[in-house]
Amino acid sequence: MKKLLLSILTFTSLVAFAQHPIVWTKYTADPAPYVHGDTVYLYTTHDADDGENFKMYDWLLYTSTDMVNWTDHGAVASLGDFEWYKNNNGAWAEQVIERNGKWYMYCPIHGNGISVLVADNPYGPFKDPLGKPLVWQREHWYDIDPTVWIDDDGQAYMYWGNPNLYMIKLNEDMISTSGEIVQHPHIEDYQEGPWVYKHGSKYYCAFASTCCPEGIGYAMSDKITGPWKYQGHIMPHTHLSRGNHPGIIDYKGKSYVFGLNYDLWASQLKYNGHAYRHAERRSVSCQEMKYNADGTIQEIPYWSKEGVEQIGSFNPFRRVEAETMAYARGLKTRSIGYNDLVVTNIDNNDCMMVKGVDFGKAGAKQFIAAIQNQKPDAKACIQIRIDGMEGPIIGTAQIGAEGLAKCNLKKVTGKHDLWFRFFGEGDQNLFDFNYWEMK
Predict the structure, then answer these.
(1) What averages of pLDDT result for each successive group of 10 residues across the chain (439 residues)?
(2) pTM of the prediction?
(3) N or C terminus of the chain with fewer C-beta within 10 Å?
(4) Please, which residues have CB within 8 angstroms of residue 434's CB and are 6 or more apart in sequence?
(5) Are 199 and 234 in contact (CB under 8 A)?
(6) What CA–CA distance (Å, rounded) separates 340 from 123?
């Protein structure tokens, strides 16, 4: 009982991190956000759970329409998609962009240049159209961290590089190049991870600033091809995170900067009673970003624990994939089919949260959840709360043998954070959580 109480108290003390980082079930890094329609598609790299020094095999996708609840779509591409590449590590920072109905993923494979994968939709499957790298300067290992921008006249450009900044034109097919590689003059404080984009009438090159620790610096230009003038920091160098890597978007009237840190890894060490030690187990965070009248960017000290404000609200009156969440503790996700995942690793007293759920004026009457792989003869339930892990209980759904958990709900109206707490006999790996809905 004492151990359980300590666990709950420690758990509660960490809830302040609810939006920082934005993914809690995996280690994610190198964010590459892309806005298409009303959705943010967030592609990331993936640090293995036992990774010590960049153990990276695949690329992940998360989506959101409110900037706080993110749906995990699992690995949409991997090193295995490059049949010519014979090793099993090196899936470094990618970027994805859409053109003419095709989706292009530019993938560095450390020491083997930059390659490209193509898909018919943002979820893949992504295929290798070339069977070789798109760009590879074999005399060094500087070809990492590609960023692609299609300018107003339709000409596409790819930038990349550590410690040098390179650029080349892409043809309209997006899988071939035009002209020679251009090496740009060194930008003050530049290290790696360039992110090239346009906002208003100005062009920007954000980047991970000189290691270590890295911040996020940026330069500006009147042209996509430069010259680039250093402007300072979006986020200063800080001892709070060894590395960083920017991704910047405009979405629904606001601007956001994504980057990375080690805070999830640090909190998990603390939660388990261990002192901090460095390992490359990184996590993506996001912060709203604001521009001054002259186009310069207001500096952000560090990722706030509160994260960003929710845009709109979350509709619970539909099938919701369980891997859609704003916060979780102790949980993982795993694939049960292409672009089909379940929440797993559910232990007694684990929890997750969906933020800003709108119950409407009438409220929800019933909760239904689909469950898989329940332990035989082990009783388990999902406790449904609002407004906090210790908030009011509005229902408790017992898990039946048919793989469903159902219960009636107390009347709740308006907008609330929705919490699921999991309880069951056997303590560990109680069941897998597939999807839920309210009626």
Answers:
(1) 33 51 97 98 97 95 98 97 93 97 96 97 98 97 97 98 98 98 98 97 97 95 98 95 95 97 91 90 97 98 93 97 96 91 96 97 97 83 96 95 91 97 88 97
(2) 0.94
(3) N
(4) 321, 322, 336, 342, 369, 370, 371, 372
(5) no
(6) 11
